[in-house]
Amino acid sequence: MRNRSSLIAGVFISVALFSCGGGGGSSGNNPPPQGLTNCNQSGYNIYLGYYNEDPTNNPEDPTAGFLVACMPSSDGSFKSQFLFSYTGCQGGVDKGTVDGNRTGNNISGNWSGNVDGTNIGGSFDGNWDSARSRFSGTWNNSSGKVKIDFGSSCNYWVAGNGTWVLYGLDSDDGNLNIQVSGSSITWNNAITGVNGFLISFYDKQCMYDKISLSDCTTWSLSCPSSVSSLTYNSTPIGCMNLFGPNPLTSGKDYVVSITAFGNSQSDVKAFASKTFTAP
């Protein structure tokens, strides 16, 4: 029995201080300021993405999660914070950190954290993928595959390795074609191999202020592949609310992100985000 809730529970919140050649912001040497606590600084931008566990290494319960990153436009160190789950076996929030450096288009660092009382950590590496305009890479658990076991009431596996991806806001990798009109959202649900979607809404300025998903999510829900539209604050038939919905503030900017997955939640088929202004 796994008690670590699917996609949203694997939230991996990365306060990463690295960037790409085409990621926007100012150019030139731009080392991250010490003690960065927000992304409201010249040369920095918010990126969104996901990570997943290797289903070959962890066929029992491979999980995907999400990332938010504040990224500068040049080389420098990066420091990250991430959440392993919203609801683990012991409740509360399990947190971890990533520290490392970006040299050119390469990312290299280490991550560490604690999941339900078990210390885990390892390497965190990647690079800028210019062909797909994204960062992508791998993470490894130095302890290998780890079982978190609280008996029959709650147990799950943490994979020994996996991958991660980050995109600039308003990216579309996989032709989800998100459209926003007022409080109505539509997307392409005719992507080959897709079995479901996870849709999340974020307060954009909050992400810049706090570099956080847990503090800035206004609504998150999972939907079957038959669903291709929704109206904010109205849960479509067949969908399940994971968090919220909380009301939007008229005139304020928000971001909707959609992750399309296949046979398992670690089988991500497409990812896209779209900025919109609440009516």
Helices, strands, pairings?
Elements: H1 6-9, E1 44-53, E2 64-72, E3 76-85, E4 94-103, E5 106-115, E6 118-129, E7 134-140, E8 146-149, E9 155-158, E10 161-168, E11 172-173, E12 179-181, E13 184-186, E14 196-203, H2 204-210, E15 217-224, E16 229-231, E17 240-243, E18 253-261, E19 268-277
Antiparallel strand pairs: 1-2, 1-10, 3-4, 4-5, 5-6, 6-7, 7-10, 8-9, 11-19, 12-13, 13-16, 14-15, 14-18, 15-17, 18-19
General form = globular
Total discrete domains: 2
| The CATH top-level class label of the largest domain | Mainly Beta
Largest sheet: 8 strands, antiparallel
Structural category? mainly beta
The Rg value, from CA coordinates, equals 18 Å
Sequence of secondary-structure elements = HEEEEEEEEEEEEEEHEEEEE
Distance between the termini: 43 Å
The strand count comes to: 19
Q: Give the low-confidence spans.
A: 1-34
The amount of helix comes to under 10%
CATH topology category name of the largest domain: Porin
Mean pLDDT: 82
Spatially, the strands of the biggest sheet line up as 2-1-10-7-6-5-4-3
Account of the protein in words:
The chain is mainly β. The protein is 4% helix and 48% strand. It contains 2 helices and 19 strands. It has an 8-stranded antiparallel beta sheet with strand order 2-1-10-7-6-5-4-3. Strands 11-19-18-14-15-17 form a 6-stranded antiparallel beta sheet. The chain is globular, with a radius of gyration of 18 Å. It starts with 5 loop residues before the first helix and ends with a strand. The N terminus is likely disordered.
